[in-house]
Structure formats: C-alpha cells, structure tokens
Amino acid sequence: MTTSQQPDAPKPVAPKPSAVTPAEVHPVAPVAPTPAYTSDLGEAKQFAEVSDDGVVTLLDGEEKVEVGQVPEASTEEALAYYVRKYDDVMTQLQLLKQRLDTDASNQELLKTLDQINQTIAARQLVGDMAKLRELSTQLQNDLVERQAKFQAQREQAIAEQQAAREKIVAEAEEVSGQDPDKTQWKQSTAKMRELFEQWRTVQKTGPRLPRATEDELWQRFRSARNTFEKNRRAFFSQLDARNAEAKKIKEDLIARAEALQNSTDWGPTTIQYRDLMTEWKKSPRASRKDDDALWARFRSAQDVFFKARDAANAELDREYEANLAVKEQILKDAEQHLPFKSLESARAIMKDVRTRWDDAGRVPRKDISRMEAAMSKLERALTELEEEHWRKTDPETKARTDSALSQLEDTIAQLEADLAAAEQAGDQKKVASVQEALKARRQWLEVVQAAGE
C-alpha cells in the first residue's frame, strides 16, 4: 500500500451490526513521533465490497465480514471511513514497535498490544488484515523476547546485588569475629562504618532482592555489627578498668619515689630506687597518654635524688684525686719486683703494699675498677708463688718425686750396663737402641730433679 490524501466522509448513520458515531468518522490521530499511516484507497478496494446503500463488507481472505453502513455517502466515502480505521490500527502498531526501543514497561506494551488485537479481531475496518496480524504477531514475539531479555538482565542484576551484599556481610562477619584482644579498634571501626555505607549504597542503587534473601542477609549484617559493637564496648570497658588499676599502682610507686628523693643516705636509697624501678617494669601499662605522664613524674622523683647523689659523689671524687696519685705510686713501686722470685721477699713486699694501700684511702669512682685490677695482679703473683712452693714442699709430692728419681736412677744404671755389654759384643743394633732409651731416661731424670728443687 502507498499513502495518499483521503476525502472527508459525510456524517454516517448507525451501521450494521453496530452504529458509528460522529467521533468515529473523524477519529483523533494518536500522538506519535512518526506520521500516521495512510492507506492507498485504490489498493484498499481489493479488501472490501461497498453496496449502493453504503454497506461495507470486509474481504478477509476467503471470508466476508460486514463491518457497517455509511448512508447518504458515496461508495468511496463509505470505504474511506473504514479504511481510516485500518490506518489507525496500523499507526498504533507502528508506534508500539517504535516504543520497543524505549524503557517503557513491558507489561504496559503487552496490554496495549492486547487492546489492538481485540480491535483487529473485531474486524470493524477495511484493509490487509493478514498484514495487520503479521505485524501484531511479530510485535508479540518481540515483546516476549524483550520480556525474556529483561528477565535475564533482572536475574543477573539480582545475582550481582546478592553477591555484593554477601561480600559485605562476609567482611563484616570477619571483622566482628576478630579476637578482641588483638583487634585494631580504630581501623576496624572505620571498616565497619565503611561497610555500612557500602550496604546503603548497594541497596539504593541495585534491584530489590527477594524478601527472604534480603531479610536473611540483613539479619547477618546487623548481627555482625551488633557483635562488633558489643565486643568494642566490652574491650574498652575492661581497658578503662585495667588503666585505672595500672594508674593506681603507678601512683603508689611515684609516691614512694617522691618520699625518697631528698634522702642523703646514698647507698641504701640507690638500692631502694633500683627496687622501685623493677616494680615499675613489672607493673601493668596504663593508656599511652597516662603512662607517659606517670613515667615523667616517676623519673622526675628519681632525677632529684640521683642528681644530688652525683653532685655529692663528684665532690668526693675531687677529694680522692690525691689518694689516687698515692696508690698509683704504690703500684709502680710493687710492680718493679715482678715476677717474684723469693716467697719470703714477696710476702714482705705485699705486706708493705697492703698497709700503704689501706692508708691511702679511697680513689675516685671512675678509677676504682682499674686500681683494683692492678692490685689483684700483685695478689695473684704472690698466690701463684705460694702454690708453687707448696707443691715443692708437700711431703706427699716430695715422696712421689724421690720414688720417681730412685726408679729412674736404677733404670739408667741397668741401661748403662746393657750398653757396655752390647758394645763388648759388637751388637751395633742393640747399642743404638740402648743409647736412645738411655738418652730419654736421662732427660726425664733432669725434669724430675728440677721439679723436686
């Protein structure tokens, strides 16, 4: 069919089997972004018969269907009236096809198509009915396909929505399942807040989940958040209690330290401060801010005492400088006799050194270790000499030495007799063997004799 200008129809009378109203003679064209469909009236004649009294019959394939009557109208006017009805339906189908490419509701489009199909089934129009039905069927198939596509997209979107929610829930459960004593609360609290914002964003932007799934995931997420918050409050409540207890213990240590800070009993007080420090290290930690402040007070009390002690020691050290010079001269005099040769002389020297050493008095603290080490060296020299003398004069040791000397002398005498016999016999091999044994025994004899001396 092609488009052409159609003549206006006169006002019709009631047709058979139904009446036609003036509004139907001049129907309002549907609003559409494309021009209304217009049939070629000449081509439309092949689908209709028009009687002289204006009765119009539709030729639908082998069927003839009386569609109505337009009295007091020419044959062409009566035909044009019912052709315009056909054009209206065709225009609606074309508009519906165009709307398939929009985001219009599929259900709305199906409802519209159903209404159009009812008009087609009523056959109160003239035109190519097969073409109408074909276009309608195509639209029906397109709508079904479109519905399946939408459904698949929706199911995928729901699956993605559910997966996103489940991921959020799993992360929340992981955070809430941490050991409270090992949880990094600042980071974990921020993570929980972030997960809640993710939940709200996903919930707003994604499709709605099935009610049961939505409720189950929300219950899990809410339970994880509640568990986390419960653990967080319990942890910080216990932390506050531990912090208060730690502060109490350390306040007591500070009070004890401050009570000692003006003491001038340097030795015992130093030991007491050492004991207080040991208790401090074993005491529980308070919060970092409180602990730092408490430590500053504790350290301040110690500093008062130790600064006063150091100042007093420094004054004493200045007084002991002269003593140091005396002791260094004592060491210098004694070291000239090293190594000691005579036990009696060594004992006399060390007796004199000890007397002078004690009379010299204390030395500065920084020199104590050095001076004691030098004195210990002299004492060790005397001790070693005394031990050596004891080994030589010990009766048991002397008896063992005399026995060894006697045995060696007897062996040497026998070897000398053997050597003389071998030489007289001219047995050079035995001579050499006896000479080697005799040489070794004589060396051992010298060693034993030296030890006895």
The portion of residues forming beta strands comes to under 5%
Report the helical percentage.
Answer: over 70%
Largest sheet: 3 strands, antiparallel
- Assign an overall shape: elongated
- Secondary-structure element order, N to C: HHEEEHHHHHHHHHHH
Helix- and strand-based class?
mainly alpha
Distance between the termini: 150 Å
What is the number of helical segments per DSSP (H or I, 4+ residues)? Answer: 13
Instruction: Provide mean pLDDT, rounded.
Output: 83
Whole-angstrom Rg: 62 Å
Number of strands: 3
Description:
The chain is mostly helical and 453 residues long. Helices cover 74% and strands 4% of the residues. The chain has 13 helices and three strands. Strands 1-2-3 form a three-stranded antiparallel sheet, with helices on one face. Strand 1 and strand 2 form a beta hairpin. Helix 9 packs across helix 10. The termini are far apart. The N terminus is likely disordered.
Layout of secondary structure:
Blueprint: H1 22-25, H2 41-44, E1 48-50, E2 55-60, E3 63-69, H3 75-99, H4 106-122, H5 129-176, H6 185-205, H7 211-260, H8 266-282, H9 288-335, H10 343-360, H11 365-393, H12 395-425, H13 428-452
Antiparallel strand pairs: 1-2, 2-3
Coiled coil: 368-432
Region (Disordered): 1-38
Organism: Enteractinococcus helveticum
